[in-house]
Inverse folding.
């Protein structure tokens, strides 16, 4: 069953070992992630599904990791000491792949000859906070969204909920994604007035449980906002669409010109 769902940002700067003094500028986000970690622990998940924008993204199919052994580092951000190792949930990965294909949603059950699947920072950064207090045998299922039609991503979320409902496992779903990267003149992607409007609108839609409003957001407007979390959110709201849930906005801030939102969707 699906018993936990959340939206998290993934900027490496919120990890003190990486951000140093700059991490203090993201104190709202860090505090919210720590609170979210406590809420996740209460649900005792067996498997965490993480939707990331920074994995092996294919334009025409959703990439579902099928490899057993997972590892990740943040060495590309200047710190090699942080290392993560997890095991996947191949049974759940196979079930999602099969159900998606039955419903006409193209996927890739990813495997290769390597002994480990390398986790991207969109997966590792949330796990830095969320996996600390969980049981050692927690399973992690990484999924990279695609650039398929909005409705297909939403439908894939519905499939996650359907497969989870038939499972005896307790399953958590994390939609990893930052909001606009264009909030200020010094933002990484430059400034665009759509940035702040996008962040306000998406948070208001999520707070109001306005699923249709999210699905109908204008494509050009989304592009102008320079986000990386919208498609993760589409899958998330698909998974929540047939459940009774209560959104809790734990934090929102954009100290470096990128919007960071932490939202817990309490499944009732």
């Amino acid at each position: 069953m699906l018993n936990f769902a959340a939206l998290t940002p993934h900027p490496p700067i919120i990890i003190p070992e990486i951000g140093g003094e700059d991490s203090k500028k993201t104190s709202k986000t860090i505090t919210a992630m720590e609170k979210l970690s406590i809420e996740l622990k209460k649900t005792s998940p067996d498997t965490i599904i993480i939707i990331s924008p920074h994995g092996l993204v294919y334009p025409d199919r959703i990439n579902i990791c099928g490899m057993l052994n997972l590892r990740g580092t943040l060495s590309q951000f200047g710190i090699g000491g942080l290392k993560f190792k997890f095991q996947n949930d191949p049974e759940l990965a196979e079930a999602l792949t099969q159900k998606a294909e039955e419903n006409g949603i193209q996927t890739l059950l990813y495997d290769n000859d390597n002994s480990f699947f390398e986790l991207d920072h969109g997966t590792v950064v949330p796990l830095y906070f969320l996996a600390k207090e969980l049981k050692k045998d927690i399973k992690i299922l990484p999924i990279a969204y695609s650039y398929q039609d909005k409705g297909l991503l939403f439908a894939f979320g519905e499939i996650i909920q359907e497969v989870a409902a038939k499972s005896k496992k307790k399953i958590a779903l994390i939609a990893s994604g930052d909001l606009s990267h264009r909030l200020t003149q010094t933002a990484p992607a430059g400034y665009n007035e759509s940035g702040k409007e996008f962040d306000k609108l998406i948070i208001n839609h999520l707070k109001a449980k306005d699923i249709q409003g999210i699905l109908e957001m204008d494509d050009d407007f989304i592009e102008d906002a320079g986000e990386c979390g919208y498609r993760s959110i589409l899958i998330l709201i698909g998974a929540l669409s047939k459940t009774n849930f209560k959104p809790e906005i734990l934090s929102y801030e954009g100290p470096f010109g990128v919007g960071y939102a932490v939202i817990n969707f309490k499944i009732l």
Remarks:
- Residues 84 and 244 are 33 Å apart (CA to CA).
- The radius of gyration is 17 Å.
